């Protein structure tokens, strides 16, 4: 399919296809920026910010994968600025999702313990059963997480507003505006398909190395999985470029493997938030216990996401001609 697009005529060279894709993403970036400035409702503003992040990620990923076809100095200067912008705008949304995830997990865990562990007889000297300890600690753990993550979300919101009003952001927006009309191509003779295939090879090699990442309770083992998630995204964007051709605006949806890696990232970060809350000085033992159960639950979710990714990856590999 990609070959059909690229070979559809002499006018559709690698340079023209790449330039068409980048101009389209730059136009979407500028459209989202205008919508963000004009939006009044919080939901509309959040939607515009998501569109802005999506376009920034696609431009940045394309500059990375197809760097040999572009002016290197320009590309290397813009790409980290787009990554900064996308990461800054993502933080507020990430903290909100993390808090919701942890609250839902606490509710689920207390409900499960309440159904599966009937109350045991109590004596004066006996310690409270785990079910009761979890129930007592869950409410305070939820309140602690709410304070910490809401504060982090508020700070992220302020940081995002500051970033959008900064001279650094205006320089990025100016560069993208120029990109919408003129793409600084290098004029090399490499093919788009070869560079896209190289991106796929890097992904395949990184996936093969995941078998040696260690126990799911070791947070250090999360790093290669996060790297694979990034490589899978770059591969998807590269395929969008190759498939874009004269038709334009091709969007490839995230597959099961990508969803599993997103779930892995979310669970790992939620587990980190629970662990950080558990390190709060002078919290009650029941609160610490509930946070420990919550941390363990999220690390189990990490392992479940790894299993789901491997299964999805194998299915997709078998189904690929």
TrEMBL record:
Coiled coil: none annotated. SMART domains: CHAD. It holds the Pfam family CHAD. Residues 11-318 form the CHAD domain. It comes from the Bacteria. This is CHAD domain-containing protein. The lineage of its organism: Bacteria, Bacillati, Actinomycetota, Actinomycetes, Kitasatosporales.
